[in-house]
Amino acid sequence: MKKLNRWFSYYLPIIIITFLSVLAITTRGTARRVLAEDNKSFSQSEPKQASFAVKNEFVIQVPPEAKLMRAWFAVPQEDTYSEIRDFHVESDYPIEYHKDSQGNKVGYLEARAPQQREIVIRERFNLTRTEIRNNLSPTATRPLNEKERAELAEYLKPATHIIINDQIKALARQIVGDEENPIIIARKLYNWTIENIDYWVKDPDNLKASAYGDTEYCLTTKTGNCTDFHSLYASLGRSLGIPIQLVYGSLFKPTLNGLEVDGSYHCWIEFYAPNLGWIPLDAAIADIYAGNISLTEKNTKLVELTTAIGYQGPDPNMVNYYFGNLDERRVVWSKGRDLIMSPRQNGGPVNALSKMYVEVDGKEYKDWTRLFTYQELNKNSPN
Questions:
Q1: Rg of the chain in Å (alpha carbons)
Q2: pLDDT digits (tens, 9 = 90+) for 115-129
Q3: How far, in Å, CA of 11 to CA of 182, rounded?
Q4: How far apart are CA 263 and CA 255, in angstroms?
Q5: How many other CB atoms sit within 10 Å of the CB of residue 149?
Q6: How many domains does the chain contain in total?
Q7: 322: three-class secondary structure by DSSP
Q8: For the chain, what is the largest distance between any 2 Cα atoms, rounded to a whole number of angstroms?
Q9: For residues 335 and 245, is the Cβ–Cβ distance under 8 A?
């Protein structure tokens, strides 16, 4: 019996440690296979495209005796997936174009001692947008090296409403454990966010969004809008060394096609994985498809308008889709937070530029409106 006890005391810890090590390796392997299967079906068909004729109209109510009005307004950003055609802007004042601190192209208007009571900026363009498809394999990437960490430092640091503190660091590490692979980390954070945060449109009587898209608000209340979701996600990811940037744009929602109703804005994420580059995800829209929503007279339209293609109930395929893939029904206005304009604004950093930022006599001014409307020019091609 003593020998048996000595045997257990000596070998049992070794057996347990070995078992846990094998389990961890198996879990990581399973996670890699699941990610590969999740993305396989999306990558096998040709990416879809959609084209839209877009109008973006800004109206500024001019206060009496204003000496200097300056306005910086969002324009469409052209990239690999966005072809902009026939872009033009109409206004009573000259329009200039500059780059902000994140490299976004921004329209700029300056009016000295304006006499009219309204200043109108009408922006028109045609856009063809291509769906983003990715077949993500964790084996294709690795953690950042020191050179990459230095080059991408801008996307690893906190911002005014994207905080990184001890609480965030501890929570992030709790979510991902000792995982170091960027793809698996990003997916674990994605799953946790969807499971623990509820988009406010699900229950508009009891849930609401913050004013600026704020990590602390989202973490404390466990709700918010797209910018709240992705501010929290950015805090968690950056705290683990995953470069993340927020993208601001708008969705081309089928139910608003051709209507003179503002299409609002939407925010999503891009995270960086070595050897793969910037990868999109949209945890906010995925949250809509992640579980049963009790539809009511108050939330049905809100839920519908939160998506890019409409809502027909829970859909696990759409939850998987929005990790690494992005639908073709959207336009990009800008990327990044805490923006410095050019010419430089008098106020502090601009939280984000999804619409417009205005100053009158050196102070931020908010008496303006934006109307974003569109007409689809072609139908989505079939899968």
A1: 24
A2: 999 999 999 999 999
A3: 35
A4: 10
A5: 13
A6: 2
A7: coil
A8: 100
A9: yes
pLDDT-based confidence at residue 378 (cuts at 50, 70, 90): confident
DSSP per residue, 124-170: EEEEEEE-B-----GGG-----HHHHHHTGGGTS-BTTB---HHHHH
Query: Could you report the per-residue pLDDT of 253-269, keeping only the tens digit for each?
Result: 999 999 999 999 999 99
Rounded Cα distance, 102 and 245, in Å: 10
Give the pLDDT of residue 42: 56
Domain of 71, CATH number, reads 2.60.40.2250
N-term to C-term CA, the chain: 68
Is the same domain home to 217 and 183? Answer: yes
Is 143 domain-assigned? yes
In sequence order, the 6+-apart residues with CB closer than 8 A to the CB of 142 are 181, 182, 274, 275
Please tell me whether residues 77 and 146 are part of one structural domain: no
Q: Say whether both 283 and 138 belong to one domain.
A: yes
Structure token digits, residue 244: 């993340």
What is d(CA 222, CA 207) in angstroms, rounded to the nearest whole number? 9
As given in the structure block, the two tokens for residue 89 are 């802007």
